[in-house]
From TrEMBL:
<comment type="similarity">
    <text>Belongs to the FMO family.</text>
</comment>
<dbReference type="InterPro" id="IPR050982">
    <property type="entry name" value="Auxin_biosynth/cation_transpt"/>
</dbReference>
<dbReference type="GO" id="GO:0009851">
    <property type="term" value="P:auxin biosynthetic process"/>
</dbReference>
<dbReference type="InterPro" id="IPR020946">
    <property type="entry name" value="Flavin_mOase-like"/>
</dbReference>
<keyword id="KW-0073">Auxin biosynthesis</keyword>
<keyword id="KW-0274">FAD</keyword>
<keyword id="KW-0521">NADP</keyword>
<comment type="pathway">
    <text>Plant hormone metabolism; auxin biosynthesis.</text>
</comment>
<protein>
    <recommendedName>
        <fullName>Flavin-containing monooxygenase</fullName>
        <ecNumber>1.-.-.-</ecNumber>
    </recommendedName>
</protein>
<keyword id="KW-0560">Oxidoreductase</keyword>
<dbReference type="GO" id="GO:0103075">
    <property type="term" value="F:indole-3-pyruvate monooxygenase activity"/>
</dbReference>
<dbReference type="GO" id="GO:0050661">
    <property type="term" value="F:NADP binding"/>
</dbReference>
<dbReference type="Pfam" id="PF00743">
    <property type="entry name" value="FMO-like"/>
</dbReference>
<dbReference type="GO" id="GO:0050660">
    <property type="term" value="F:flavin adenine dinucleotide binding"/>
</dbReference>
<keyword id="KW-0503">Monooxygenase</keyword>
<dbReference type="InterPro" id="IPR036188">
    <property type="entry name" value="FAD/NAD-bd_sf"/>
</dbReference>
<keyword id="KW-0285">Flavoprotein</keyword>
Length: 434
């Protein structure tokens, strides 16, 4: 093993991360006794809490300066949870009883902070993981990170990827996008329609975010045009006095998914009418079947559809090209706009730092195995928050991961403790994180 560390030392001299350290100061190496979690959104918090309940302390690294940075900095002001709170709570701690059925963004953030405080979770903020790879020689994960601007190398037996499906903004390739002279804003930067009062705005993307942004723009007297590039299921937020999601979950206990889909579509037709007449064509598969197979979420309407019916929101069928002030649509029409909002979603950033391709696809950074089997890889690698099933899916993953690690933890605890005092990781170079 001494030869292994000599090899590591030699590689370090040629490592660009190491070269950024001050001359004569090698990269600090830290042995993490428990799991190392990358990301402290709801998924990372849930996993750390489930582990702690089982007596397993974890180390959480977060590139931002706070918990749940996506919710803190990249969501619009009017955002509420689209599902009832009982389907969005994290493991081991329900929402406060005085919270409304659909908590606001601010209430959800308060819940997450209370969750972290209750379980005494202390993430290491401003810690950007730049590389993580399995080291066959020593049998541990090597994780390099810039921690408050300084490079640190961690060694751990378990690596939990909690950066999620929404780590980076997705910006599609649209011909002429760079030529457009008005503001081009991704929804991650959109806060309120007040910034677009009186302006004609092209909203590209018709998921829940695109629909709600259009409604917000209307409320501030802007003139939104919604680009619907593909077919989409729009369902009422409530059916038969219950949340549509809650009703669906209840029916699935007794009926096949195909029958539940037919029932939901029948009620939607009665409540909303024929959406295709307004340019919103439904997919061939039902909403639940489509969600189950592809992860594509149906839109839960919170008032946008009524604005579409009255003509306050115009539906367009796709952009073929943009120019300085105009958009050309696939039907050949051309129209001028003051601003563009990209409601085009997010993507995983896992391939940029995790040097592993068996569990995660190098193409899209998502687990190769379909739900519910995508949470566990090889060599102590786990994924949480990649189910395309929101907070409910993340909570399921968190529980599974904690249970799986607990089995090995109990079996190997004495061996792990002995390891930290052995000569495998020389004490002169390696610190310990408990």
């Amino acid at each position: 093993m001494d030869s292994y560390w000599k090899e590591v030392e030699g590689k370090r001299l040629h490592d660009p991360l190491t070269q950024k350290q001050k001359h004569g100061h090698p990269v600090p190496q830290i042995w993490v006794q428990g799991p190392l979690i990358v990301g402290v959104g709801p998924s990372g918090l849930a996993t750390a809490a489930c582990l702690k309940q089982k007596g397993i302390q974890s180390l959480i690294l977060e590139r931002a300066e706070c918990i749940a940075p996506l919710w803190q900095f990249k969501t619009y002001d009017r955002l509420r949870l689209h599902l009832p709170k009982q389907f969005c709570e994290l493991p081991l701690m329900p929402f406060p009883s005085d919270f409304p059925t659909y908590p606001t963004k601010q209430q959800f953030l308060a819940y997450l902070k209370a969750y972290a405080d209750y379980f005494k979770l202390n993430p290491v903020f401003n810690s950007t993981v730049t590389k993580a790879e399995w080291d066959e020689r020593c049998g541990f994960w090597r994780v390099k990170a810039f921690v408050v601007g300084k490079c640190v190398e961690y060694f751990c037996k378990w690596l939990i990827v909690a950066t999620g499906e929404n780590a980076e903004e997705f910006v599609p390739q649209i011909d002429g996008l760079e030529e457009f002279e008005g503001p081009v804003v991704h929804t991650s930067s959109y806060k309120t329609g007040g910034e677009f009062r009186g302006k004609k705005v092209l909203v590209i993307g018709c998921g829940n975010s695109g629909m709600e942004v259009c409604l917000d723009l209307c409320n501030f007297n802007a003139f939104p045009h919604l680009v619907v590039r593909n077919s989409v299921h729009i369902l009422p937020h409530k059916m038969l006095g219950r949340s549509t999601f809650g009703l669906s979950m209840c029916l699935l206990r007794w009926l096949p998914m195909r029958i539940v889909d037919q029932f939901l579509l029948l009620l939607s037709r009665l409540i909303l009418g024929d959406t295709s007449r307004l340019g919103l064509h439904r997919p061939k598969l039902g909403p639940l079947q489509l969600k189950n197979l592809s992860g594509k979420t149906p839109v839960l309407d919170v008032g946008t559809f009524a604005k579409i019916k009255t003509g306050k929101i115009k539906v367009r069928q796709g952009v073929s090209r943009l120019s300085r002030h105009t958009a050309e649509f696939v039907d050949g029409s051309v129209e001028s706009f003051d601003a563009i909002i990209l409601a085009t979603g997010y993507k995983s950033n896992v391939p940029s730092w995790l040097k592993e391709s068996k569990m995660f696809s190098e193409k899209d950074g998502m687990p190769r195995k379909e739900f519910p089997n995508g949470w566990k890889g090889e060599c102590g690698l786990y994924a949480v928050g990649f189910t395309k099933r929101g907070l409910l899916g993340a909570s399921m993953d968190a529980r599974r991961i904690a249970e799986d690690i607990e089995v090995v933890w109990k079996a190997d605890e004495s061996a792990l403790m002995a390891f930290t005092h052995s000569s495998v990781l020389p004490q002169s170079r390696v610190q310990r994180h408990d």
